[in-house]
Amino acid sequence: MAKVVVIGAGMMGTACSSHLIRTGHQVNLWGTELDGDIIDLLRQRGIHKTLHVSVPPGIKFFQADELEKAMDKRKIVIMAVASYAIGKIAKKVVPFLKEGVFIINVAKGIPPSPYLTLCDLIESLIPSSLSKKVRVIGMGGPARASELVRKISTEVIFGAKDERTAEYCSRITRSPKFKTSATSDVTGVELCAAMKNAYAIFIGMCHGLSEKLKISMDNTKAALMGQAILEMSRIIIPYGGKLETVMGQAGVGDLYVTIQGGRNGSFGKLLGQGMDVKEAMEKMKDQTVEGYIATRGMYRLAKDLEEKSIISIKDDLPLFNELYSVLYEGKSPAKAIEDYFNKV
Question: Is the pTM of this model over 0.85?
């Protein structure tokens, strides 16, 4: 049994808390300044207002001004806030870290330059006196919060520079309904987690367009998924990631579940139905579309590779090139899909 604190009371943070309390751990759930109403309802009725589910008994809930109390004697810290907030929240957490703590990042995104992954960003904030005594781990794979919290069979992979660290996290979180594995490819795990959100937007656009035109486009969506995996590998491998990570739960598995539902696919669907980016964002104003942010980060990584003559964005990442054109240059989804398929 481990003493755990989950940072962030959104859907994923609450789902992780529910799973870990059922697995026999002591769990504190801390909410950010944005989670006040969520924590209040959890304390009063044990119900999460977005997941619409009762959480298992035993979880202790903490408001934003109770971080020190929530962190007390915790060995496992799970970062479950939106990717854009990881740096800000990690800075608040760092003063309460002790020797021997494991930080597990479950957020999915690409940090600002010069960092490659969110784990890199978190590591950069840890004081030098603790840098070799606090371990940072990434979690990837198809783990939709609404299913995890309801004990639907789920599989994830933990990545850490030292595979023994990842194996420890895998072992203590595993259950009959939660299959886990471990790898030393933390770069691959983290980049897959971010990039699949971006590509899910494009495939969501195809879904929205098919509904708008009232035609089936399953062939198209399947082709786009295959190309997305290929392009992910073309970015990830030059940065040190492994092909097997892209082809496993972190890449193929997570992309599939993200396409099937979730915010990124829904955002893409709105674009495919005819909304522009601003309108679609307004429609989803209470939800974070991680893939939109990740696309900008991916462009930075791809551009760095292009400048080193490792890839050509236009030739090696044609699907990503079209996605970027839609999200940041105003191209229509229909034209982007047409141009992708007409490219020789």
Answer: yes
**pLDDT-based confidence at residue 344 (cuts at 50, 70, 90):** low
The catalytically annotated residue of 196, 221, 242, 269 is 196
In this structure, what token pair is assigned to residue 338? 């047409």
Q: Which residues contact 293 (CB under 8 A, 6 or more apart)?
A: 83, 84, 109, 110
Is the domain of 21 the same as that of 167? yes
Do 195 and 167 share a structural domain?
A: no
Q: Determine whether the annotation assigns residue 264 to a binding site.
A: yes
Looking at the structure, do residues 239 and 266 belong to the same domain, yes or no? yes
Check whether 8 is labelled as a binding-site residue. Answer: yes
Residue-level pLDDT at 288:
85
And the tokens for 322? 């079209």
Say whether both 20 and 52 belong to one domain.
yes
Is 11 labelled a binding residue? yes
Number of domains in the chain: 2
Structural domain that includes position 110: 3-184
159: helix, strand or coil: strand
For residue 196, indicate whether it is catalytic: yes
Mean pLDDT calculated for residue range 333-338: 97
Q: Per residue in 69-81, pLDDT tens?
A: 999 999 999 999 9
